[in-house]
Amino acid sequence: MLMSDMSETPLGPYIDHTNLQPDASAKDIERLCSEAVNHQMFAVCVNGCWVQHAWTHLAESDVTIATVIGFPLGASDSDSKRYETEVAVDNGAHEIDVVMNLGRFIDGDHRYITRELRDVIEAAEDRRVKVIIETGYFNDEQIATACKLAVDAGAQFPQTTITPRRRPSKLAESEDEIRTFLDSIPDYNDVFDRKTPEQVQVMLDEFLLTEEDAEEVSTESQRYSSDKSAVDTAFEELLAS
Fold first, then answer.
1. DSSP secondary structure code for residue 13 in this structure
2. Which pTM value belongs to this model?
């Protein structure tokens, strides 16, 4: 294709406009739908809870509504995947993207994979079904096998990956933030007994204790009982050795 031809080819019909972020709000979904309509995109892809909301904004348009099933891990029970699909269809989904059960596939349980995919495809009621196989986990031979299983089960085609972009958690970066988080839980001290790192170390020593190393473990626990955390002290000693 010549560059001039490419510049004249509309890209919208080839794009699934997607927002699968866990913090997506109603306004985010509305913006997604508006952009898809304005740029004549093929589809929007949203989490299951937003399918009906997307439908109310796209019912009069040609934009397809896609949603994900068993997302993002693919490890939910087969029955729950089928139910997710049924609900999505009832809420207006035109296309289903189901995450394959990666662990079952690695175990070689192809019968389980096929049965699960056929259940989802049946629940989709002739709607297009794509199978997300998360290719990053597999070698070429495994990818080929997964693609064959998906197509043999009746899916329209496999999909490489749909892993969402995750934001790093800031909670563990500050001891003060952790304390604030715990203090916000009602009756936390009545439910959980707070322990210092030193107390946790002693508890672990006692739990793993055998008669043969009782004296040695006791000595280690006492040695790590200081103002520093037990982990910090242990790492300093390891680095110094």
1. G
2. 0.71
Between residues 191 and 34, which one has the greater pLDDT? 34
d(CA 135, CA 199): 44
Q: Domains along the chain? A: 6-159 (3.20.20.70), 171-240 (no CATH)
DSSP state of 23: T
Look up residue 93 and give its two tokens.
Answer: 């989904």
What per-residue confidence (pLDDT) applies to 212?
A: 54
CB count in 10 Å sphere of residue 2: 7
Secondary structure E strands in 20-135: 43-46, 64-69, 95-99, 128-132
pLDDT band at 93 (very low <50, low <70, confident <90, very high): very high
Could you give the count of Cα atoms lying within 13 Å of 87 in the half-sphere of its Cβ? 16
Which value, to the nearest 10 degrees, does the dihedral of the CA atoms of residues 53, 55, 57, 59 take?
-160
Largest CA distance in the chain: 81
Token pair recorded at residue 163:
């892993």
Task: Note the pLDDT of residue 88.
Answer: 98
Instruction: Report how far Cα 164 is from the mean position of its chain's Cα atoms.
Output: 7
Residue 159 in tokens: 């999909």
